[in-house]
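Re: [ENG-882] Designed sequences occasionally contain unexpected residues at chain ends

Forwarding the minimal case from QA. Structure tokens:
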């Protein structure tokens, strides 16, 4: 007997379509139930009439309430080595964290979130080439074998042998949200690689390149020098991105409104920019905006952040376009312009040179600094007001102590 979620409308025509488990049951001629709620009294009565001996749960998507948990041994196939990675996304979170080993736990369910006693465990080493799709497939195979063994060992009407979960080593694998799919290229190259493979092939890591939304599907750590910190670059048919002071190579990418493609196919056809949108950071006394090729609404946001930093007499790091300009000067006049309202930033000839003006380091053209007073010399900047992003402090280390402008 197979229980799964009801058919859902899918496709442009909204045709009711079975779940993958439901379709498999139909293809194999198995007895298929699709209740709206497994906790409904009539469903429980039908399960008792069918003389069900145990309920085996894997990604079912419904909460099993007390009457269900008390009525049958409920065995959950969970894709982690419990008590680590309890929750909705154990495979993705394990890959993001760079685990070397993960596995499957067969657990007797209780009222908590993946807190029930352990019945069986199977391990699986994680290789550098694994993405979430490969790992999920292999864990499903391991879990199926484990579950079959547990059921074979259970006598009719008996309970499976189990042991309590350890009290140490508890961690949680929260559901993947929108903020989790955006790449943060201030992180180390290996962290970025792990993030990408955790979201492949089912979600995709999102990144702004040249102001356009892309998905990144496959990358690797590249042992090449950093050419830019605010932009990707092409070398022959290879595509590289900066990441946390190092470099990653992109092997598979998806441009907006296009299908996934290899990096060399993308490089041959792409005519847009490769500037990288990093992030806006507010950290206590510092405000940081990093964006390669600032334009449009991002320029307005940068301008507002610069004014706020100036008015609060705080330092600010921000990214400049390749052509030096003053992102922190007064807005141009006209509808909607003015402090903090999104007006366009003035060019240097319009801005004057008062406190809050920006300068671009000629040795590092992707970065502007604004501070009261504006100066690249760290000795004139209160350390408590600054943090270095991206982490390349030696370019601004005026005292030779390796600290750069980080406070």
């Amino acid at each position: 007997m197979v229980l799964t979620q009801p058919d859902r409308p899918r496709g442009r025509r909204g045709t009711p379509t079975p779940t993958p488990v439901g379709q498999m049951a139909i293809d194999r001629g198995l007895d298929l139930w699709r209740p709206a709620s497994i906790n409904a009294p009539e469903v429980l009565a039908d399960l008792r009439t069918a003389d069900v001996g145990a309920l085996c749960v894997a990604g079912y998507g419904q909460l099993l309430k007390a009457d269900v948990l008390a009525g049958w041994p409920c065995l959950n196939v969970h894709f982690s080595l419990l008590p680590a990675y309890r929750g909705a996304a154990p495979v993705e979170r394990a890959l993001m964290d760079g685990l070397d080993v993960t596995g499957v736990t067969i657990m007797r369910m209780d009222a908590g979130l993946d807190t029930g006693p352990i019945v069986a465990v199977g391990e699986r080493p994680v290789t550098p080439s694994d993405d979430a799709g490969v790992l999920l497939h292999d864990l499903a195979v391991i879990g199926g074998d484990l579950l079959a063994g547990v059921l074979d060992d259970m006598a009719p009407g008996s309970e499976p042998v189990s042991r309590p979960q350890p009290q140490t080593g508890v961690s949680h694998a929260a559901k993947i949200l929108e903020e989790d799919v955006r790449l943060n290229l201030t992180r180390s190259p290996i962290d970025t690689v792990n993030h990408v493979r955790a979201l492949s092939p089912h979600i995709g890591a999102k990144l702004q390149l040249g102001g356009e939304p892309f998905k990144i599907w496959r990358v690797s750590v590249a042992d090449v020098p950093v050419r830019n910190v605010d932009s990707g670059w092409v070398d022959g048919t290879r595509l590289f991105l900066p990441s946390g002071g190092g470099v990653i190579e992109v092997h598979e990418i998806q441009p907006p409104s296009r299908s996934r493609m290899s990096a060399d196919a993308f490089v041959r056809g792409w005519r847009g920019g490769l500037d990288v949108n990093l992030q806006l950071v507010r950290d206590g006394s510092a405000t940081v905006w990093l964006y390669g090729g600032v334009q449009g609404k991002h320029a307005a946001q940068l301008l507002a952040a610069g004014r706020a930093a100036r008015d609060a007499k705080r330092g600010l790091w921000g990214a400049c376009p390749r052509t030096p300009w003053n992102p922190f000067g007064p807005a141009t006049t006209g509808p909607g312009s003015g402090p903090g309202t999104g007006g366009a930033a003035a060019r240097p000839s319009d801005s004057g040179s008062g406190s809050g003006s920006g300068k671009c380091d000629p040795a590092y053209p992707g970065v502007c600094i604004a501070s009261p007073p504006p100066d690249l010399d760290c000795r004139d900047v209160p350390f408590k007001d600054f943090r270095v992003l991206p982490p390349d402090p030696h370019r601004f280390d005026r005292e030779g102590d390796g600290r750069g402008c980080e406070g």
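QA comment: On inspection the terminal residues look reasonable. The two ends are 63 Å apart (CA to CA). Proposing we downgrade this to a documentation issue.
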